[in-house]
Amino acid sequence: MTASAAHSILLPLSPEEEQHSRAAAALIRERLAAAGGWLAFDDYLELALYAPGLGYYSAGSTKLGREGDFVTAPEISELFSQCVARQCAEVLEGIGGGQILELGAGTGRMAATVLTSLAELGVLPERYAILEVSADLSERQRTLIEQLPAELRERVVWLQRLPETPLRGVMLANEVLDALAFKRFRIRDGLPHELGVGIEGGQFVWREDPAATGRGAPPFADLSAELLAALPDGYLSEACPRVGPWLAGVSECLERGVLLLFDYGFPRAHYYHPQRTDGTLRCYFKHRAHDDPFINIAVQDITAWVDYTRVAEAGFDAGLEITGFVTQAAFLLGTGIEALVAGAIDTPARARLAGEARRLLMPGEMGEAFKVMALGRDLEQPLRGFAHQDLRRYL
Question: CA-to-CA distance for 189 and 229, rounded, in angstroms?
Answer without folding.
Answer: 9
